[in-house]
Amino acid sequence: MNTRLLFLTILSLSVLIFLSCSSVNTQKISYYDSLDNLFAERIVVSDQSSQISNIDVNLRFPENYKMLPEAEPFVKIFTKNEIIAEYPLKVSENIYPLNIEIKDKELYIHLGLFYCREGAQGLCLMKNIIFTVELNPSKSREMLILNYEVLDEEY
Q1: pLDDT digits (tens, 9 = 90+) for 109-147
Q2: Do residues 146 and 75 make contact, with C-beta atoms less than 8 angstroms apart?
Q3: Cα(58)–Cα(148) distance, rounded to whole angstroms?
Q4: Which residues have C-beta within 8 Å of that of residue 142, sequence separation ≥ 6?
Q5: Predicted TM-score (pTM) of this structure
Q6: I need a surface site. Which of 11, 64, 91, 140 has the fewest CB within 10 A?
Q7: How many other β-carbons are positioned within 10 Å of the β-carbon of residue 64?
């Protein structure tokens, strides 16, 4: 009987240890938190309205570079807690509708650029840009304009 009791005790402890070790942390990681280690150029835009009608992304490329649409460049708009919108990034159609009032103090816009130098031996590059937009709730509804100039990369 002592052997059986010892066996059941060991089995019960083993099950408890297994269950405690195998419990999975189901805490959801936000998109914002996932960008902590992303190699990206970070730009701060101050004093913008928290009531944003549209976002206008103005990209300028050097003469010998062009966007690579096949690589699916993107615009991702998010706060610390949620992704608000995601659009394919285009050079010619660069106004993205939002029509939302942001309750957070900051809004983030992640641009994923893919571009190439023209020519037979053109170099293709990828660049991440993250705009941190500091919001002012007292300003009236307006369009958010983001300007970015891609520099000629010499490799």
Answers
A1: 999 999 988 887 778 888 999 999 999 999 888 899 999
A2: no
A3: 6
A4: 48, 49, 51, 52, 53
A5: 0.76
A6: 140
A7: 11
